[in-house]
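User: Okay, second chain of the day. Same drill as before: sequence in, structure tokens out.
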Amino acid sequence: MTDVYCQIAETIGHVAAMSVAVATRSFGIRVPDVVWMPPERWESIDRELPVPFVPDLCVEVLLDRRMPQDIGHRVRAYLEDGAREVIVVGQRGELQFYGAHGQLQASAFGISLSLEPMYFDA
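Assistant: Same drill. Structure tokens below.
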């Protein structure tokens, strides 16, 4: 997860964060592994409370999750509540990018993650 965070921060700016609670209308409070949004959006929030909206980019890393079945609900909730993109890193290191109209071939933010194979199931 830290590697994903570092690569995103390096690619689109250092206003990414790890494990930030965000409020979704349809799926309650969720904690994406990595989020990113422009600096002006960070200025408007109280960092002691869950972010009252969904950031522009949310990333879910399924590496340590035993039961990733709810990932579809999470992706939909993030996108329905304002995320411009959701990236899912699968248990084998595969990347899936989602936008408002479904799965994308590549990141709309220009993100390409290089992940160490040793961290993933073969």
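The chain has a mean pLDDT of 89.

User: Thanks, on to the next one.
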